[in-house]
Amino acid sequence: MFCRFELTAGSVVATFARTLTLIICLAAVGSPVSNNKHSVLVIVGGTGDLAEKYLWQSVFDVYLSIVENRHDESNWSPTPVNHTIDFYAAGRSQQDKGSVILNKILTTAVKCDVDSERQCLKTLTEFIDKVTYITLLEDEDYALVCSELTRKFVNFPASTTRELILFVAIPPDAYEAVLAKFHKHCSALRSHNVSVRLAVEKPFGLDKASAETMSNKMLSYFEEEDIYRVDHYLGKSVAKAILPFRHLNPNFEKNLNKDFVEKVEIFIKETVGVEDRLEVYNTMGVLRDIHQNHLTQLLILVSMDLPSDMNNTVEVHQNKERLLKQIEPVTRHNSLFGQYKTYAGNAKDLESNNTGNSPTFAASVVKINSPRWRSVPFLLVSGKQLDVRESFIRIVFKDNYVCVSHCAHKNLEEKGKNAKQIIFHIGHGSLHRPSILVSKSFEKAHCPEHFKESLDVNSLSTHAVYGDSLKQFYVCTVLKDIPAYVSIFADILANRQEHFVSTTQLLLSWQMWDYITSAPKKIRIYEHSDPQGHLNFIVKESQLEFAKDIGPERDGDNERVVSRKSDEHKFMQTAATFLGQKLVTSHTDHLAFLLARDIDKAAGADIQSKGSFHIAFSGGVSVQKIFQVLAHSFANLHWQSIHVWQVDERCVPHQDERSNFQMLDRELLRFVDIPYSNIHAMPVYTGGRLCDPELGGAHAYAESLRHIVPNSQLDFIVLGLGTDGHTASLFPMSADLHVDSNTFVITTEDGPRGTERRMTMTLPLINRAKRVTIFVTGSQKQEIVSKLETDTLQSVEHYPILGVNPVNGTLCWYIDYSAYTED
Ligand SMILES: O=C1O[C@H](COP(=O)(O)O)[C@@H](O)[C@H](O)[C@H]1O
After folding, report:
1. Rg for the chain (alpha carbons), in Å?
2. How far out from the chain centre does Cα 802 lie?
3. What sequence ranges are listed for the domain Glucose-6-phosphate dehydrogenase C-terminal (predicted)?
4. How far, in Å, from the CA of 50 to the mean position of ligand 1?
5. Among 121, 363, 635, 740, which is least packed, fewest CB within 10 Å?
6. Which residue's CA is the nearest one to ligand 1's atom 16?
């Protein structure tokens, strides 16, 4: 039987968490139910930058509200709970030195409100005394601290709820050692009924692979429900009010879909530059710093299906994850990049080899492939050194109003009534307070809890906002703007995990941004605050274009190399090889995505440099996956400039299910906007005859390749691998392996087990290509993969795939886990 009770801690911090609902389920019948709780909060990195700038002030605000049990205009209710908290700042310095630094931070950086009562100053002094510095460096330090904590915890009666929160605010390359040592020496706390939770600050990886590695490490020490990944935007007052607002206003909610919404703009604009964070920022750029986390989380809040219970963590997470699965990965074609003028010069001064190619501005259109949102562009925009500091979500509704009578007499006021938008004004900018604005052409909105209807709009701003006069909006303003970190600490203490990022959400959001973060980029340089509006852009369906052409953009191609390098030491990724060539491994679906992404990248580069891209595909079940990914996630490739060729084909008509072309057409070509003249199907069936040598189909195909593609050099070839080591339709011991000209042939023998003959590309033609890839998936390929590495009979005769060896091009293997790893 589970018992349950709820406890409400009223406090300043609980503005949005207002009811800090702590649900404690005790597994044993008759377990004592307690109103007492003791928490220990350890901030690792407690003397660091973030701690100094935000964390200790926020922790103090939470503490103050708990101590004072304060009632105020926001109607926070008092807590019935006796909640005691001990605070520790952990660092690597020795005790005496660390204590001095901590004391300096606490006495200078933590303050009471100017208008706060004298009581606050007294509480602050108490608080400063309560925060203890601890050294966490060697194993012995952890052992000592944890045995001391255990001793203190067991002094509390068994009925007291006990918890230890490890708040990690240090760079990710230092996490691992901390978590491992903590686990080794502090896990025993759990056997004393202490629940141990981890709160952690971004960055959560630099790409999906490193995020996955890092998450797996965390999950080997903590349960998923004990991990609180902090995204401070989820602590901002308006962000927290989005779901409640949607819940309270069903009439708006029912319009939040593609039938009514024209576009959604999500902006985080900053006026500051990168300043003293250059070293870190340069490995991230704006996409990793803002888009992958803050902007994506805001996008989720506004577009996810509304949970029936917003306090139900499981349901909230499920809905967020479902939405994320429907988002298409962002590609180069739907993104624009900029960099403020002085950035590169500053970055070049760094000691590392950074070339300063990280964008400081990016705009991307995100598409949600769901019945609710399909075709609605979500514009995610952020930049540094822009004209104003402002963050908002602006939902613009379709304007279906048609004026028939007296249209010319409509005054501005009337016209404004037709504009339809809902704006979640998260902060700064032209409004003095975080607010929610709803166009008056809608019915009046209900303001969510902790917001009030603002009738005196002049006190909010004297300017026009979001293209309209403020008078044309109903406005809900926040009663008290609680700083994001205050809200975050309150949520951690109240176990409200729905305001944090789950592992699944993290990995899905990386999947969205993974490609574009490392893809080559054209970067437009802009002046501080962009006085000429060079960053203004136009949305054309799902493509973006800068509105003004200002000549060539800078090429940011080196970015990948730069960030890779720094990833390497941060996450210790090693480059993999197979048979001496580059190897990429992953789960099948992700592997197909990675190959499709590499095709996209190669196509982008070639189209830009020479105007066209020629790719040849093999047939086979594995390759089908790539077609599907290309069709559904990369449909924005510049198909007008892409030519598709075939590596091989069975001698069957295209209507035959065994036809490779049929699959190519069914799974890819019909979904993309490729000109008919760019599709080069193998002529296996001519004049009612199949692969008749007299018709010279193979020769004709080679000729058309020669005419269309300079030097018959294909830009990209996707090959498969048979369980017998064949590739294309070149089988072991076949005479076709010895053809030495750049041509296609009709195979000399039937296919395996007496199947029909084929037309195939020969090895010399394959080896002429610029990039050759071999895509291998499924456990049935395990044996051949391992034979290729171990068999002493390494001849092309036995294993035709070994004949693939581009003369001037590159070769890359893509082998999925089930083919690469032994069961
Ligand atoms: O996490 C980050 O956010 C800040 C912007 O946050 P805000 O609350 O001031 O809007 C950004 O400056 C920083 O680069 C980024 O890492």
Report:
1. 31
2. 38
3. 244-528
4. 12
5. 740
6. 289
Q: Quote the CA–CA distance of 437 and 289 in Å, as a whole number.
A: 28
Answer yes or no: are the C-beta atoms of 265 and 393 closer than 8 Å. yes
Enumerate the H helices of 395-502 as residue ranges: 412-416, 484-493
Rama region for 359: left / alpha / beta (φ>0; ψ in -120 to 50; rest): beta
Residues that are catalytic: 294
Sign of CA dihedral 88, 92, 96, 97: negative
Angle of CA points 794, 799, 801, to nearest 5°: 110
Q: What is the pLDDT of residue 814?
A: 95
Residue, of 244 and 68, whose pLDDT is higher: 244
- Interface pTM (ipTM) of the complex? 0.95
Place of tokens 């790539």: 626
CA neighbor of 58 nearest in space, from 201, 178, 176: 201
Residue minimizing CA distance to atom 9 of ligand 1: 270
Query: Strands, E, within 568-612: which ranges?
Result: 577-578, 581-586
Ramachandran angles phi, psi of 169, nearest 5°: -125, 60
3-state secondary structure of 107: helix
Contact indicator for 768, 713 with CB cutoff of 8 Å: yes
Strands 716-719 and 613-617: parallel
Q: Which residues pair with 477 in a beta bridge?
A: 435, 452
Nearest CA to ligand 1 atom 14: 289
Ligand 1 site-directed mutation target among 274, 284, 290, 385, most atoms within 8 Å of CB: 290
Whole-prediction pTM value?
0.69
Residues with Cβ within 8 Å of 121's Cβ and at least 6 positions away in sequence, in order, are 112
- DSSP class per residue in 433-462: S-EEEEETTSPPPPPPTTEEE---GGGT-S
The pLDDT assigned to 468 comes to 79
**Which of 19-33, 52-66, 322-336 is least confident?**
19-33
Please answer whether residues 481 and 433 qualify as being in contact, where contact means their C-beta atoms are separated by less than 8 angstroms.
yes
Q: Compute the distance between CA of residue 10 and CA of residue 101 in angstroms, rounded to an integer.
A: 33
Atom of ligand 1 nearest to the CA of 391: 10
**Max Cα separation, the chain?**
101
* Amino acid sitting at position 741: S
Asked if residues 358 and 557 have their Cβ atoms less than 8 Å apart, the reply is no
Cα(607)–Cα(610) distance, integer angstroms: 5
3-class DSSP assignment, residue 327? strand
**How far is residue 672's CA from residue 536's CA, in Å, rounded to a whole number?**
29
Residue 277 CA: which ligand 1 atom is closest?
14
Name residues contacting ligand 1 (CB within 6 A). Answer: 268, 270, 289, 391
CA distances from 474 to 230, 422, 433, 456, 492 (A): 32, 10, 14, 11, 33
- Report CA(563)–ligand 1 centroid distance (Å): 20
Q: Torsion angle, CA of 706/710/711/714, rounded to 10 degrees? A: -90
DSSP helix/strand/coil, 812:
strand
Question: Coil, helix or strand for 679?
Answer: strand
Distance CA 302, CA 395 (A): 9
3-class secondary structure, 705: helix
Nearest-angstrom CA–CA distance, 767 and 714:
10
Which whole-number Å values give the CA distances from 801 to 292, 396, 621, 762, in the listed order? 39, 55, 18, 11
Instruction: Give just the sign of the alpha carbon dihedral 97, 102, 104, 105.
Output: positive
Average pLDDT over residues 423-432: 92
Query: Which pLDDT tens digit goes with each residue over 581-611?
Result: 999 988 888 899 999 999 999 999 999 899 9
- Report the 10 Å Cβ neighbour count for 365: 25
